[in-house]
Amino acid sequence: MSLVLCELADASPAGVLSYSPFCLKVHHALRLAGLKYQRQHGGRPDAWRAYNPTGQVPVLLVEGRPVRDSTEILRWLVDGGHLCGTPEAWLWEELADSALNGFVVAARWADPQNWKRTREAYFPGMPAPLKLFVPSLLRRGVLRSLHARDIWRAGPERCWDRYKRLLDALDARATPPGTSWVGAERWTVADVALYGQLRSLDTALTPVQGAELRDRPRLSAWLDALQDAPVASAVSLHPIPAQRDLHPKR
Ligand SMILES: N[C@@H](CCC(=O)N[C@@H](CS)C(=O)NCC(=O)O)C(=O)O
Predict the structure, then answer these.
(1) Disulfide-capable partner of 70 in 22, 145, 154, 207 (CB 3.0 to 4.6 Å)?
(2) Secondary structure of the chain as H, E, C letters
(3) Of 25, 49, 79, which residue sits at a domain end?
């Protein structure tokens, strides 16, 4: 079966496969499932608009058919028996994609200490004259969205206080290294979604936020073990439904 992950630039030189937490989530899910796939890199998220009208990454091409949105990709993996998706695991997946992701975006785009690093990492090849104003314009839009999402609205202090409290709660809740976050027998949608966002908070772009995470020993140990987790030996318990209606009307 041909699988192609349409994503952003390869960030491997920076020690992480992708700067996109949602792409990272899918990379890890595919890796844990033991599925081989190819990578296709775009310069901007909307490079794959032909496959995804929202203009976002990731998109997974399955035999050329697009599965858009990381959550839909996980759903597809669950349907194929490659990943476990209990109701509780889906709740954690939602928390990772919404609450935790807000802090990833705030750490990179809003925190003035990190913005310069983010700009250099996100717009490496941009000609200098454009680099003077395009990233700042985009940043303004991202700040507006963080305000609307109620992440940055009460100011940086309140934002980072919430972040620390959330990390404390996750640290207290963490399961032993090498085990699923929801106590399942197999890796779940919760594990890979938490991995994508938490790992993204622990890159060179956001040293302070990464250090906060590293200060939580149980959570750090869980994350490290998941990063190094062995690839699934049973690659496919059930054949993957190639012709499933991937975007049914609700
Ligand atoms: N719900 C989407 C969110 C994906 C997402 O936000 N991707 C970011 C890159 S990490 C993106 O494409 N941003 C550009 C945009 O939102 O316009 C998913 O789970 O795939």
Answers:
(1) 22
(2) CCEEEEECCCCHHHCCCCCCHHHHHHHHHHHHHCCCCEEEECCCHHHHCCCCCCCCCCEEEECCEEEECHHHHHHHHHHCCCCECCHHHHHHHHHHHHHHHHHHHHHHHHCHHHHHHHHHHHCCCCCHHHHCCHHHHHHHHHHHHHHHCCCCCCCHHHHHHHHHHHHHHHHHHCCCCCCCCCCCCCCEHHHHHHHHHHHHCCCCCCHHHHHHHHCCHHHHHHHHHHHCCCCCCCCCCCCCCCCCCCCCCC
(3) 79
Asked whether residue 192 carries a pLDDT value surpassing 50, the answer given is yes
Regarding whether 97 and 30 lie in a shared domain, the answer is: no
Domain residue limits at 187? 87-227
Q: How far is the CA of 68 from the centre of ligand 1 (A)?
A: 10
CATH number of the domain that residue 134 is part of: 1.20.1050.10
**Residue 56 Cβ < 6 Å to ligand 1:** yes
Is the CB of 138 within 6 Å of ligand 1?
no
Q: pTM value?
A: 0.92
**Among 100-109, 113-122, 224-233, where is mean pLDDT lowest?**
224-233
Give the tens place of pLDDT for each residue, 196-220: 999 999 999 999 999 999 999 999 9
Q: Per the domain annotation, does 249 fall within a domain?
A: no
Distance 234 CA to ligand 1 centre (A): 30
Nearest CA to ligand 1 atom 1: 69
Any domain includes 191: yes
Q: Are residues 162 and 214 in the same domain?
A: yes
Q: Which atom of ligand 1 is nearest to the CA of 22?
A: 10
Specify the CATH number for the domain of residue 34: 3.40.30.10
Residue 66 Cβ inside 6 Å of ligand 1? The answer reads no
Ligand 1 and 86: CB distance under 6 A: no
* Contact 196 CB / ligand 1 (< 6 Å): no
> With a 6 A CB cut-off, is 94 part of the ligand 1 pocket?
no
Q: How many domains does one find in the chain?
A: 2
